[in-house]
Design a protein that fits this description.
Length: 137
């Protein structure tokens, strides 16, 4: 009888632990991407998971800096957009260095559970590196 009771308690504890896990977890992370001249969008990260609880992802350009030595670092802005495959699922948004932004996902694309981040430079004549962080929300 004791072993049946112990097994029952163990099963109940296991069930409680499984159901308290956040099955709606989202991805967070960071990276660095090089963007070319002419404001061409470049893939920074793909397969980022969304929880589905929010209609946005939080993206921060932690640093924007020249990709050439001996060039004065006056870069402070870049462009970002979210995509699912080749489909653009957000507006193009200008980020300012160090300021987190909520990038809204268009209503008709909220059912996608993953997305990719694409960055572009803010000026057509300059290439740059962008150090970024994200929270898929």
């Amino acid at each position: 009888m004791k072993s049946v009771l112990r097994k029952g308690i163990f099963v109940m504890m296991l069930v409680c632990m499984v159901f308290t896990l956040n099955v709606f977890a989202s991805d967070t992370g960071s990276g660095v991407v090089r963007v070319p001249e002419n404001q061409v969008f470049v893939l920074a990260k793909k397969g980022i998971k969304r929880s589905g609880k929010y209609n946005y992802a939080k993206i921060t350009a932690n640093s924007v800096y020249p990709d050439q030595n001996y060039v004065e670092d006056i870069y402070t802005r870049c462009l970002v957009r979210l995509q699912y495959g080749s489909t653009v699922i957000s507006s193009e948004v200008q980020l300012t260095e160090g300021e987190p932004r909520n990038i809204t996902i268009k209503n008709s694309y909220l059912h996608y559970d993953t997305f990719r981040i694409n960055f572009a430079g803010n000026h057509p004549e300059h290439s740059a590196y962008i150090a970024y962080s994200y929270d898929g929300k």
